[in-house]
Amino acid sequence: MSRRGESVPFAFIAEADRFRSNVTPPPPARRSFRQVAGSALVGLTIVAGLVGSVLLGLPALSDNQTPSHEPPAAAEGR
């Protein structure tokens, strides 16, 4: 078995970093108005949901609720 002078087996893998192709990829297709409008609508729906959940959750997070010191109604009959 003779050696061919290759430093590594599968030398084509080592040479792949140096290879440059002269083939350029096609330009990306332009998105239609419906696709852009759909993406914007999905984004607005997500943002509106987040804002709505914050607004609905603010009363539960506020500190200004005064605790009532009344005994529970079930304890009145004792």
Structure, explained:
The protein has 78 residues and is mainly α. It has a domain at 31-60. It has two helices and no strands. The termini are far apart. The mean pLDDT is 78.
- The proportion of residues forming helix, as a percent range, comes to 40-55%
- Helix tally equals 2
Radius of gyration: 34 Å
Distance between the termini: 102 Å
Beta-strand residue percentage: under 5%
Ranges where pLDDT stays below 50 over 5 or more residues in a row are none
- Rough shape? elongated
Average pLDDT number? 78
Q: Which oligomerization state do the chains in this entry correspond to?
A: single chain
How many strands in all?
Answer: 0
**How many strands, which pairing sense, and closed or not: the largest β-sheet?**
none
Keywords: Membrane, Transmembrane, Transmembrane helix
Question: What's the structural blueprint in terms of helices and strands?
Answer:
Blueprint: H1 11-15, H2 33-61
Transmembrane segments: 40-61
Keywords: Membrane, Transmembrane, Transmembrane helix
Keywords:
44% helix, 78 residues, mainly alpha
Question: What's the short story on this structure?
Answer:
The protein has 78 residues and is an all-alpha fold. It has helices at 11-15, 33-61. The mean pLDDT is 78.
